[in-house]
Design brief:
The protein has 216 residues and is an alpha+beta fold. It is built from 1 helix and 9 strands; from the N terminus they run βββββββββα.
Length: 216
């Protein structure tokens, strides 16, 4: 708000301030003016020690006062106490602060969740069913038939030799503990007998295979 000036006249030929009452705003100024005249005047505010001018005079004078606080103030002329001036000062209106516009917050961007990769299921290895073990056929011993010599193409008057089956030597009873040193001798005798028999059989087989000798 702009401060203003309010003019008051101290009547040079009368006994009054004109106007005698004022209502102003805080910060305004009151200007009391006295033209040269026939009356002695000054202005003395009740809240101040000194008057303006210090002594009443008929000469022209001007006194200013700025009112910077609210309240009611009074002034008189020192030699004319009935000559009064009242000024009411109104406190300046406090300007209403404009509401501060709050900035609109930017929308917060919601982060998208990162999709997790789907784990690939590895199929379990398929185990081939175990083949049942096939029992291999056990080779059964084949009995070897006894070899029979075929009839020779010799004349009918010659006999045909037949290879008799080898005789199995009879088991020799084990030597008893009371036989003393006869055990080794008996074993030697058996070996010799078996060797002679085997040799005779071999000789017969060869003779049969070659046939009877022809006369020259």
């Amino acid at each position: 708000m702009v401060a203003r000036n309010f003019d008051v006249i101290a009547e040079p030929n009368g006994l009054e301030f004109s106007p005698a009452k004022l209502t102003i705003d805080e910060g305004d100024t009151v200007v009391v003016d006295h033209p040269e005249g026939l009356q002695l005047h000054n202005v003395h505010w009740d809240d101040r020690e000194n008057a303006c001018p210090g002594e009443p005079t008929m000469s022209a004078w001007t006194c200013n006062r700025a009112f910077n606080k609210p309240g009611t103030f009074r002034a008189i002329c020192d030699i004319h106490p009935s000559m009064t001036l009242t000024v009411k000062v109104i406190a300046a209106a406090t300007p209403t602060p404009k509401p501060t516009k709050k900035p609109t917050p930017a929308p917060t961007r919601t982060p998208r969740p990162t999709p997790r990769p789907t784990p690939r299921v590895t199929p379990a290895p398929t185990t081939a069913p175990a083949q049942p073990a096939t029992a291999s056929p056990t080779d059964e011993p084949v009995a070897t038939p006894a070899v029979t010599a075929a009839p020779s193409a010799a004349p009918s008057g010659s006999p045909t030799a037949t290879v008799a089956p080898a005789s199995t030597p009879a088991p020799i009873p084990a030597a008893t503990s009371g036989a003393g040193g006869a055990g080794p001798l008996l074993l030697l005798l058996v070996l010799m007998t078996g060797g002679a028999v085997g040799g005779g059989m071999l000789l017969r087989r060869r003779s049969a295979a070659s046939g009877p000798s022809r006369p020259e």
